[in-house]
Amino acid sequence: MPSRSKTPASRSASRSRPKAAAKPVTKPKAAAKKSVPAPKTVKPKAKAAARPKAAKPASPKVTSPKPAERAPQPTLRLVSPKGPSGVPVVRPANLSAGDARSKDVMEIDWALFGELSRALALKVARAWDPDVVLGIATAGVIPGATIAAILDREFHSMIISRRYHAETVRATPAVFGQVPAEVRDQHVLIVDETCDSGATMRLAVAAVLNAGAADVRTAVSFRTGSYAPDFVGLETDAEILLPWDREILVNGELVLNPDFADLIR
What we know:
By secondary structure, this protein is an alpha/beta fold. The protein has helices at residues 8-15, 110-127, 141-151, 199-210, 243-246, and strands at residues 76-80, 89-92, 105-107, 132-137, 154-161, 174-176, 187-195, 215-223, 231-236, 239-241, 247-250, 253-256. It starts with 7 loop residues before the first helix and ends in a 9-residue tail after the last strand.
């Protein structure tokens, strides 16, 4: 079959067809930058003025009544650095010159007596080691038992007195009863509360040596005279008023001892 050929008219028509207009190419728009808002400045708020606090009403002061004042106790004053036996010597210092009754009286309370007994036990322990402690009854039993307890030693007592079984005070002391047998062949410490002339202590030493003690030494809480024991708690030339002598029991009540009324104000 013969091929159809295009006629000049059709060719010209095909040639003369207008071409489709090309679409313009638009570039994509860049994303708009977001503007960052400037930070806000926060102004500090002014504090409100503090309100003045209302003053509390003052509470009335309650004053407790003062306890009744006690009479002043004699103050100890150092008279000399050391006495003849190397022990401090003291006298009452706050007594008036015209106070004749109590000028040379030293009143000892329980607290002071306890401290002196403890100090005396330490003096003994540092220089000697007794086997037995022997207290001279009655008052010497108190420091004697205290010293024996501190030293952890066996304790015994014996009676040597000027007043025992007597209506009046004897001129010289006497031994009543026997010396404890436990002193034989032992180192014995004899203890009394005070010592002046030494008559009681000499009698005690002789009796204990006669009972067979190997060695005997003496100790007193207060030395008030010429006799020099081996161990002394305190030396004084004042008269000693001991705590158990100050008061006595009458009808179940402690009252001032009439025997020492002139010494106590």
